[in-house]
Specification:
mainly beta; five-stranded antiparallel beta sheet
């Protein structure tokens, strides 16, 4: 079985980028990644557990959490959080469905269902979750001083 050491690769890739509010120093970000494991409980039922991904193998389910907080004294507004997908991970959805995705390294954005992949000598094909290279959330609603939230997305180790 192939074992992949993830600490450096995933945390390096999990560096979210923020737009205008961050440039003013008012938005703080923190990122975590967890591997989802299924465990048997003493009563025979199963439960899902999130744990630190010391090692992962192809097929492991990952949960990425990007926490944001307005640490400034004024309301933050109209900011964007952008996060690259690690190359070793296939995108598997978000908790809110409010994201835009890119399948070309962040050049173009849209809902996954609307994006196409250009192929040489054949017609374009619909983009799939395996093609996603970046995620982006646009925050058009104000975020009060001290307010915080989190963005959650999932992936599967390739």
């Amino acid at each position: 079985m192939i074992r992949v050491l993830v600490r450096t690769a995933f945390f390096a890739a999990l560096c979210a980028v923020v737009g205008p509010a961050y440039a003013q120093g008012s938005l703080q970000l923190a990122s975590d990644v967890f591997v989802e494991r299924e465990i048997a409980k003493p009563d025979g039922t199963k439960a899902k557990l999130l744990e630190e991904p010391k090692t992962v193998v192809p097929g492991d389910q990952l949960v990425f959490v990007v926490r944001y907080k307005n640490v400034g004294t004024a309301t933050a507004s109209n900011f964007v959080v952008t996060n690259p997908m690690p190359r070793a991970v296939r995108f598997d959805g978000t908790a809110d469905g409010a994201e835009l995705v890119s399948v070309d390294g962040g050049k173009n954005w849209g809902a996954l269902a609307t994006l196409r992949i250009a192929q040489s000598n054949v017609s374009d094909r619909a983009a799939t979750s395996a093609d996603v290279t970046h995620l982006k959330w646009n925050f058009n609603q104000p975020l009060s001083a001290g307010a915080e939230g989190k963005l959650i997305f999932r992936g599967v180790v390739r």
